[in-house]
Amino acid sequence: MRPFVYREAVARGISGWVLNAGDGVHVEAWAADAAALDAFVGALSANAPAAAKVENVSVTPLEGEGPRAQDGHDRPSGFRIVASEDQTAHTTLVSPDIATCPDCVHELFDPTDRRFHYPFINCTNCGPRFTIIRDLPYDRPKTSMAAFPMCPRCAREYADPADRRFHAQPDACFTCGPHLTWREEASTGSGDEPRVPAVGATCEESDAIIGRCAHLLAAGSIVAIKGLGGFHLACNAGNDAAVRELRRRKRRSNKPLAVMMRTLDEVRGVCKVDDAEAALLTGSVRPIVLLRRRVQMGSEPTGDGPEPMLAEAVAWNLPELGVMLPHTPLQHLLLAACGERGVHALVMTSGNLSEEPIEVDDELAWEHLVASGIADALLGNDRAILSRYDDSVVRIVAGEPLPVRRARGFAPMPLSLPACPARTGSDPFVPGAAPVVLACGSEQKATIALTREVDDGKAQCFLSQHIGDVENGETFSAWTEARARLQSLFDLTPTALACDLHPGYLPSQWAREQARKQGLPLIEVQHHHAHIASVLAEHNEPGPVVGIALDGTGAGTDGTVWGGEILVADLAGFERTTHLATWRLPGGAASVRDARRNAYALLMAHGLLDHAGAASLLERMDEPTRKVTATMVERGINSPLTSSMGRFLDALAALLGIRDQATYEGEPAIQLEAAAWRAAIRSQAAGITLPLRGGVLDPAPLLRAVLDGIAAGADPNLLAWQAHDAVATGFADAAINIARERRLDTVALSGGCFMNRLLLCRMWRLLEQRGLRALVPHTVPVNDGCIAYGQAAVARARGI
What we know:
Elements: H1 2-11, E1 15-21, E2 24-30, H2 34-46, E3 79-81, H3 102-108, H4 152-159, E4 180-184, H5 203-218, E5 223-226, E6 231-236, H6 240-250, E7 259-261, H7 264-270, E8 271-272, H8 275-282, E9 288-293, E10 320-324, H9 329-340, E11 345-350, H10 362-370, E12 377-381, E13 393-397, E14 400-405, E15 415-417, E16 437-439, E17 449-453, E18 459-463, H11 473-489, E19 496-500, H12 506-518, E20 522-525, H13 527-538, E21 545-555, E22 561-569, E23 574-580, E24 583-584, H14 589-593, H15 595-605, H16 615-619, H17 623-635, E25 641-642, H18 645-655, H19 667-678, E26 692-693, E27 696-697, H20 700-711, H21 716-742, E28 746-750, H22 757-769, E29 773-775, H23 787-797
Parallel strand pairs: 1-3, 5-12, 7-10, 9-13, 16-19, 19-20, 21-28, 23-27, 28-29
Antiparallel strand pairs: 1-2, 4-12, 5-6, 6-11, 7-11, 8-9, 9-10, 13-14, 15-18, 16-17, 17-18, 21-22, 22-23, 24-25, 26-27
Helix pairs in contact: 5-9, 13-23, 15-17, 15-18, 18-19, 19-21, 20-21, 21-22
């Protein structure tokens, strides 16, 4: 920000200084021309660079007049940048990492440029930020670049206001900056290849490392590659054997894999890309974008541009593909080198075993990824990663972004929280302290949120990057690390804790223990209320609204497992008005993994096991499994009651023979959606719904219709479409009736089931056709990645 302020001041003939402080950027400016000062102040917001976020500009007149101080002496002329200070509160916003800008990409491939092929090229407009920051204010000594003193040429650029690298903290070159490192298993070489250097200290050595990596990828090997926030595991996305081997080693048999391509034209060869999707792919963040596939995996693509053929095993038969373009200089260089060897797309998946945190340390990555047999080689570097970050994932729906995973490029930029009720003397916050809520989030797709009050009664909410599923010691350690980093970097000490109502979630257990130890107030927030609250907070909507929360699981206030809910809610509270009819889930998590047991119990609850259409399901279950399942349901043994829409969709997938077992979260329901997209006719309503009986949505008519279709030999894809339409219609009709009764005009949609594009769009359309305003999240995920944000909003709204 300081270089930008400097240039704006100099352009207007303004004198003064600018510095970084913990609480923001401080500027003192003076000029004889008051109009020039006014224009300067206006430009600070209007012309701010893309990497900056100016929340407000506070102006305080200096004593004296123009260039003459109050004591009669002239103020010094000229504008300068002064050394940062750290005597103020840490309220400065920290920029996320920024994708390599076009100017740096041009220099990267310009043989006459001194940074030709330098894998860490950057400037004030791009490069690493949050992943290298150790503390505020943001200056090189407080980053992992402190280990790399600038050479004279880089130092001159850094000090030159006319240079694009003026005060670019990660500025470096081959002479003074980070370098690539290379290690590979001895078994990958044939013995006659030229020696590959261990460190890319020169352009030639660095090119040799990248060339060797591209050679191995083209030959079908798997390489661990260090990125901005952690390691990727990469292989040739067009080599089916390589992709299947990566799945075997990573223990990720079916979950779709993301790919990286070099150009937008190549992406368009295999996916449909609209303008909004293209802007995301090529912008300053460059997340993984979920795109509608143009061709099936394993088939030859069609179109005019360069078209990589993708292996069937990349995403199997799913209708969407996660794609990103290069966002680091190394990735640009590697994709170019791979292209020269006939490889036009790489699988780039997180560098970890499934369900474990992404690796960030080179030595541990070698131990956990290469020595353990997952990867064949490791392309690292000697710049430390200080914050663990996965790639962000975004989908465009109706022209608007819907985040699926909020991480690199987005976090930790703060979100706004609405103004709260006036505080009273009964507040349980720590007396004399500014209220700070630490919201601990959910167990799956976990995030953490910290709040900071601002002057207008609103608050900033620092929502962490996606952490993962906090179900084991490794991911809980990553959760703890992210929490400590947020608290330290923004100098925030919690005065209250918020957590999920579920008794078994590790973050919730930690919150309860800390509340007890520290004597802090604890706000336990019901899971689906947090979902709806996150939508309200994002849209600055006070409520009440009708909230439709559809997901896999959430502890209800009645001791059952919720997940198919219609609430009337504001930020402070909610009323459960309607829900999907409950049934027993035999074995709990066992039925999540084996959808056949779930489907059996669902049919049993509605007296439909004897229907002819159930025969196929029963034949796929051996007799002991059927007997044990029936006994567990009848006696209520480890069989919680649930109203979960996620589990309901899983059961339908098993009933239709689409998917019996879940190898990753929600797989049967995801395959059910894929089948529905394959239906030849999706233009007209199915004529089936979920009738509302006393606040309960009854799925029996839908189940009976599906069984009738199976018995009649109907297309399973068409039945899958009809099931989606029935669910969307049933919940939309119920929400419309509630809105009419309560005189409400807004419906908020949240929960992991709305990652189902078909279900979301159908329900959204039905609601708006009836004149209701449908709100969906655009800055936080619709899945459990929003829970911490919702918890923070609820805690503040309750006046604590």
